[in-house]
Amino acid sequence: MPHSATKPFIDVLSGQRQVIPPVWMMRQAGRYLPEYREVRAKAGGFLDLCFSPELAAEVTLQPIRRFGFDAAIIFSDILVIPYALGRSVRFEVGEGPRLEPLDDPGKVATLAPRADLTKLAPVFEALRIVRGTLDSKVALIGFCGAPWTVATYMVAGHGTPDQAPARMMAYRHPEAFAKIIDVLVDNSIEYLLAQLAAGADALQIFDTWAGVLPPAEFARWSIDPTRRIVAGVRAKVPDAKIIGFPRGAGAQLPAYVEATGVNAVSIDWTAEPTFIRERVQTRVAVQGNLDPLVLVTGGEALDRAVDSVLANFGHGRLIFNLGHGIQPETPIAHVGQMLKRVRG
Ligand code: CP3
């Protein structure tokens, strides 16, 4: 393959450590960027922005232009799947997502088995636009939410600190809850395959709320559905590169990696370095894990924290990233400082 066509981000996912790790940031397109706020203001609602291909492509590319990250992530949201399933999904300014709650078996019986993926055609169009514009060395990431995390919003109808409504539903009505999960598994496979067909080079599965589950429930509701999605995607695209992000999985990361078959795991900032090196990074690449709050802080604290991510994980396969999404109040200059420290 000609050198110009290789992508360091994809090389790490394929098993080749890079001397300077590829870098991107979760939620890299967003409110900390003035150019994002400008486009966001003229788009109308948040979903209008997600479903305007030119504007979604533009905000996807903004952080690449400004910082030269090694990967772009398509601008969309994990809740577009409930939307394509015909559920009502709204984003209120300052309040986060609002959905019609799916909190009893009677309501679950009305859940459509198949999403109307034509409703997500603008996302695929945005992917094609971005792929056509991006430098060939920069990877394009498609994504979906893991079924457990998407289900927490569908059941409660909004975000909660501990996902009590979804946990209760899974205990009280395991069959109805399993139906929600199964519908999300099937449709996430189709959605991810369509993103690959539209030009995504790799995929990430966001399981932001994995960490609130006890081990047996984690195995049932996080690991197993993710395993089925990975297998379903690979049944059609055998070499699909997939990153899992079971936030808060801690000691269960080796089991997650073993069972799901992901190429990399994204780790949060609480991950214990020796454990990760010995039990996780020996099998797959790791992505992470700077605390987003130290990026808000900047200064020497930021330099020390970047050095420690590199010292902890830089001798193996590493994609440098944050341990979760960037905070909207992050000063832009700190992102530049972080990149300089990583790349030298
Ligand atoms: O990473 C990127 O730059 C790509 C875009 C992206 C968004 N959401 C845009 C967004 C991605 C990958 C997501 C994933 C997502 N969405 C997750 C998993 C990752 C994570 O951060 O935990 C979750 C749980 C959601 C659901 C969601 N979307 C919530 C809870 C909220 C409200 C909270 C908030 O940050 O405002 C959103 C809205 C959202 N999604 C915004 C953005 C840029 C902010 C909306 C705005 O600009 O008005």
Can you lay out the helices and strands and say which pair or pack?
Elements: H1 8-13, H2 34-43, H3 46-50, H4 53-67, E1 71-73, H5 80-84, E2 89-92, E3 96-99, H6 105-109, H7 121-133, E4 139-145, H8 147-156, H9 164-172, H10 174-197, E5 202-207, H11 215-236, E6 242-246, H12 253-260, E7 264-266, H13 273-279, E8 285-290, H14 292-297, H15 299-313, E9 318-322, H16 332-343
Parallel strand pairs: 1-4, 4-5, 5-6, 6-7, 7-8, 8-9
Antiparallel strand pairs: 2-3
The protein binds coproporphyrinogen III (CP3).
Coproporphyrinogen III (CP3) binds next to strand 3.
Molecular structure report:
The chain has 344 residues and is an alpha/beta fold. The protein has one domain (3-343): TIM Barrel, CATH 3.20.20. 50% of the residues lie in helices and 12% in strands. The protein is built from 16 helices and 9 strands. The protein has helices at 8-13, 34-43, 46-50, 53-67, 80-84, 105-109, 121-133, 147-156, 164-172, 174-197, 215-236, 253-260, 273-279, 292-297, 299-313, 332-343; strands at 71-73, 89-92, 96-99, 139-145, 202-207, 242-246, 264-266, 285-290, 318-322. The strands form 2 sheets. A 7-stranded parallel β-sheet has the order 1-4-5-6-7-8-9. Strands 2-3 form a two-stranded antiparallel sheet. Helix 12 (253-260) links the parallel strand 6 (242-246) and strand 7. Helix 8 (147-156) packs across helix 10 (174-197). The longest helix has 24 residues, at 174-197. The protein is globular, with a radius of gyration of 19 Å. The site of coproporphyrinogen III has 22 residues, from strand 3.
